[in-house]
3-isopropylmalate dehydratase
Amino acid sequence: MSSPEFSAGEAPAEKVTEVTGTGIPVRGNDIDTDQIIPARFMKVVTFDGLGQFAFFDQRFDDEDNEKDHPFNEEKYRGANVLVVNANFGCGSSREHAPQALMRWGIDAVVGESFAEIFAGNCLALGIPTVTADQADIEALQDYVEANPDAEVDIDVAAETITYDDTVVDATVHDAQRKALVEGVWDTTALMGANADAVRETARSLPYVPDEHVSEPAAEDGA
């Protein structure tokens, strides 16, 4: 089946072409999903409220006393661009990790590299995972630490990161960039926008009974 085409303004999900805001640096390679959201906080029916538990064990000791961590620092309150290092989001495939980051307030993650499943789970939420060279990432982390109120601009379409007078060449995976820029990253919204095609496909499947392929309810007055 060919990919659906949408004209301007008809994308089923919000188009994510650019993310601008203040940054928050979390340093260290191989930060896994258990560090991002410990497993004991995953016993929830919905993802609501997960944001408060992001990096919980890195932020608090066993007596719930605060430890030294950027997510505890007042200067980063309201930051929406997370700047990390290599292999971020490795470990388990738990989708709770990007859910927790999103609910903390993160709209984009910039780093040296990401675990593939983590990046895919971020895409499902409309969160770009943008990569750049190690030296460029470390320079950005240094800048954000020194200038927590300064804006960082991520151009998803052009694949650049801009801060101060610096423009960094970045990379957004081709499939991710296309999905974000065209507004087709939300698979539920995409299926809803192509309901007729979904029903047609369902009818063609021998194991789907006809009574399970419902037509949309008629509008009042139709």
Notes: DSSP finds eight helices and seven strands in the chain. The helical segments are 33-36, 56-59, 96-104, 116-123, 134-146, 174-182, 187-193, 195-203. The first helix runs from residue 33 to 36. Residues 1-9, 189-194 have pLDDT under 50 and may be disordered.
